[in-house]
Amino acid sequence: MQRFKDFLGDIDHLCETSAGIDKSEYVHPKLKNLGSVSLVLIRETIAPVIFKNFEQEITDIVIENGGEPHVRAVPNKFKYPERGRGLQILRALEAGGRLPQNKTALNEGQNPSEAFDLNSLLFGDSVQKPKILPIKAAVNYSDALSVLPKYQCVEETHHARVNEAGTLWDEEKQENSSHLFKRHFIKPSTLLIQVLSTHHRLLPQIGFDHLLLCLGMAGAYGGQTSVTGINIRTHVVGIYGDFFEQAITSPYELVKSLPKDDINVKHDIKALTGYLHQQLSTTHKASMDTETATAYQQTQVERFEKNHDALAKEYQAAQQKIGAFFDEWFGKVAVGRKGRRRKKKEIEPEVS
Predict the structure, then answer these.
(1) pLDDT digits (tens, 9 = 90+) for 168-187
(2) Residue 74, Cβ density class (10 Å: 0-12 exposed, 13-18 middle, ≥19 buried)
(3) 159 near 3, Cβ under 8 Å?
(4) Pairing between β-strand 175-176 and β-strand 15-19 as defined by DSSP bridges
(5) What would the pLDDT profile of 51-99 be if each residue is shown by its tens digit?
(6) DSSP per-residue string spanning 91-117
(7) What backbone torsions phi and psi does residue 330 show, to the nearest 5 degrees?
(8) Triad 196, 201, 206: Cα angle to 5°
């Protein structure tokens, strides 16, 4: 991973001090610098998946004028489960994850480091009280787009709405219930391309390693996951770094670039991975192929499973630095301020 050093942040230099207008100086996150690292993924459906918004149909989008719509999984369909997995990792390593997901809060008198952690830096976070403290995510999740048109990826099933007894009778309304509804789903073996990109050299190395752990190998994604359980397997195409972000790292450009006459590329993971890596490696200053990147990710997983204590020490040391960064950025609560207990002053008895 040293090949990406020039495009990632430094955990020992997360914040800087600048001259202020109303006071002598103030602390802020390290100034943005050129540099981006993109993690390109293939999401393979291994069981029926449901990616939709308010409509019952699977969400889609047309990526070419006059072209067929493709399946579109918006970023939060993947980011939310993986952010939750990150909290579980931090809890297991005793390096954060003190609060429930999407329930980050601070009580009066608490320091920001008591709520924010490595997950906050990686995925973004915020609290609303006593002040609004916003943290922008250090990694951008793109849409995940199917390599094949939607009509080749989606099917539907018909289901009956029945009561506990298995009949179409609504005891509350004393009438027959609406008996049929449709469920649209993405078929197994559908391949989707997604890109996760860092920006401005704000994410340190351990943050990127944490991202690889959060991806895991497979998981349950999308709506109504209790129907199918684990339904997505994640494959790493490669890792790519450069000072400037490249248009080809957008999944919209990658899907459009796929050859029209090579059916194998759109059906076979190995062929698709090889094609994507060839396109991406030639346009970036630094790159890591699928074998090396997958082996590196597997090493992180094995360290978590077999060398747990050593990894925990690294995470805990990193959390000390990250916590200090948040405290310096947002302001550490002074001892004795409202919300903290003052130590009672002992009164000496008067001597007569």
Answers:
(1) 777 878 887 776 677 889 99
(2) middle
(3) no
(4) unpaired
(5) 988 888 899 999 988 889 999 999 999 999 999 999 999 999 999 999 9
(6) HHTTSS--S-TT-----TT--GGGT--
(7) -90, -10
(8) 70
| pLDDT tens-digit readout, 184-219 | 899 999 999 999 999 999 999 999 999 999 999 899
For residue 26, what is the enclosing H or E element?
A: strand 25-29
- Convert 134-150 to b/e letters by CB count within 10 Å (16 or more is b): ebebbbbbbbbbbbbbb
Dihedral, 24, 28, 33, 36 alpha carbons, nearest 10 = 180
Neighbour tally for 43: CB within 10 Å: 22
pTM, two decimals, is 0.88
Asked if residue 91 lies in contact with residue 70, where contact means CB atoms within 8 angstroms, the answer is no
Burial of 114 (0-12, 13-18, 19+ CB in 10 A): middle
207: which 2 tokens? 């943050």
**Residue from 77, 343, 95, 96 nearest 232 by CA:** 77
Strands 139-141 and 25-29: unpaired
The mean of the pLDDT values for the chain is 89
